[in-house]
């Protein structure tokens, strides 16, 4: 309730400071869908192919402020929906015996995961916006640093593609070191080395990744709880939610890093199950970009067919012909987290030299 109250307070100050201008924008703007389907951030005039009229200073200011107003509204509705999902989940847990993934859709699960993260990311700038007079500089700061200071609701479609691609590339920069660490562990059995050599060191076919389960399970050398501290740090940076700040993981104790990695693996595991159950054909471009960025897939951003193919290859790690929601196929957490560095998605090559 406190987070929702803070969001409503920020929206109140936003409407108060923008005055008549904000009222005009709000009344003329359609509320974007916030179930992690990513609003387009485009107005009708952005799609017109005809000649464009020169905008007056007032219209230019209105157009410039529109993403901030839309983003604030979208974030408010996302948190509002999150409260409804939590209430639904609480009611289900009191009566049902099935798991969470059986009662929630993937969009509801994404809202439950992302709403508080989006709010926390935007909260400093929203709080600064509430400061009289100097708060008017908040949109300027947000406009200059949207990736660092604003959640996805405030991004334009081209910015989403750019930012997701940049984050995926930042994660992929740690793949060569991660693969070298695995090869050092594989000096006795040479399973990983032989499989990589068989594929020309370009990465494994995703369908082959499951063959490495013994190497990553409880009795294997790459079990998550037995990985050395440096390996855990590199692994955390390769799947970080915010790669720009992933270096902070080095400041935390080893057990906290392990818990963080377990949570990330659980999130990917549940999302994979839901994608297998619901399919990926109905996902929008931005939803596909978000899903691929989370999994560290570095290819195809901006191309919906390429992203869908890459995500389908990721899901081919599972036995897609026999998907059982009651007893889903479950990979070891360590294997799931290392999969982006081991697999080859849509012929994306990773240098290991």
TrEMBL record:
<protein>
    <recommendedName>
        <fullName>Letm1 RBD domain-containing protein</fullName>
    </recommendedName>
</protein>
<keyword id="KW-0812">Transmembrane</keyword>
<dbReference type="GO" id="GO:0030003">
    <property type="term" value="P:intracellular monoatomic cation homeostasis"/>
</dbReference>
<dbReference type="GO" id="GO:0005743">
    <property type="term" value="C:mitochondrial inner membrane"/>
</dbReference>
<keyword id="KW-0496">Mitochondrion</keyword>
<dbReference type="GO" id="GO:0043022">
    <property type="term" value="F:ribosome binding"/>
</dbReference>
<dbReference type="Pfam" id="PF07766">
    <property type="entry name" value="LETM1_RBD"/>
</dbReference>
<keyword id="KW-1133">Transmembrane helix</keyword>
<keyword id="KW-0472">Membrane</keyword>
<feature type="domain" description="Letm1 RBD">
    <location>
        <begin position="148"/>
        <end position="353"/>
    </location>
</feature>
<feature type="transmembrane region" description="Helical">
    <location>
        <begin position="119"/>
        <end position="145"/>
    </location>
</feature>
<dbReference type="InterPro" id="IPR044202">
    <property type="entry name" value="LETM1/MDM38-like"/>
</dbReference>
<keyword id="KW-0999">Mitochondrion inner membrane</keyword>
<dbReference type="InterPro" id="IPR033122">
    <property type="entry name" value="LETM1-like_RBD"/>
</dbReference>
């Amino acid at each position: 309730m406190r987070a929702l109250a803070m969001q409503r307070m920020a929206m109140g100050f936003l409407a108060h400071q923008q005055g008549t201008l904000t009222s005009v924008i709000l009344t003329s703007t359609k509320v974007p869908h916030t179930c992690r389907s990513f609003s387009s951030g485009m107005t009708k005039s952005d799609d017109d192919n005809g000649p464009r009229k020169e905008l007056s200073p007032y219209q230019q200011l209105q157009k410039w402020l529109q993403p901030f107003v839309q983003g604030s509204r979208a974030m408010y509705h996302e948190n509002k929906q999150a409260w409804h999902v939590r209430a639904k989940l609480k009611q289900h847990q009191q009566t049902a015996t099935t798991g969470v993934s059986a009662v929630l859709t993937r969009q509801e699960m994404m809202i439950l995961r992302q709403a508080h993260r989006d709010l926390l990311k935007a909260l400093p700038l929203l709080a600064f916006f509430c400061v009289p007079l100097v708060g008017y500089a908040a949109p300027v700061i947000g406009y200059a640093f949207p990736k660092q200071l604003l959640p996805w609701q405030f991004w334009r479609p081209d910015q989403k593609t750019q930012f997701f691609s940049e984050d995926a590339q930042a994660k992929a920069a740690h793949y060569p070191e991660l693969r070298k660490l695995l090869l050092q562990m594989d000096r006795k059995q040479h399973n990983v080395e032989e499989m990589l050599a068989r594929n020309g060191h370009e990465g494994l076919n995703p369908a082959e990744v499951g063959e490495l389960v013994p190497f990553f399970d409880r009795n294997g050398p790459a079990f998550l709880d037995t990985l050395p501290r440096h390996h855990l740090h590199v692994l955390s940076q390769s799947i970080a939610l915010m790669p720009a700040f992933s270096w902070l993981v080095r400041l935390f104790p080893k057990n906290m890093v392990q818990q963080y990695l377990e949570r990330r693996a659980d999130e990917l595991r549940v999302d994979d199950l839901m994608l297998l159950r619901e399919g990926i054909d109905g996902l929008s471009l931005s939803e596909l970009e978000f899903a691929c960025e989370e999994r560290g897939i570095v290819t195809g951003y901006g191309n919906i067919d390429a992203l869908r193919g890459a995500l389908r290859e990721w899901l081919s790690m599972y036995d897609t012909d026999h998907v059982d929601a009651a007893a889903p196929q479950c990979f070891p957490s360590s294997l799931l987290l290392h999969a982006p560095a081991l697999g080859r998605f849509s012929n994306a090559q990773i240098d290991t030299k």
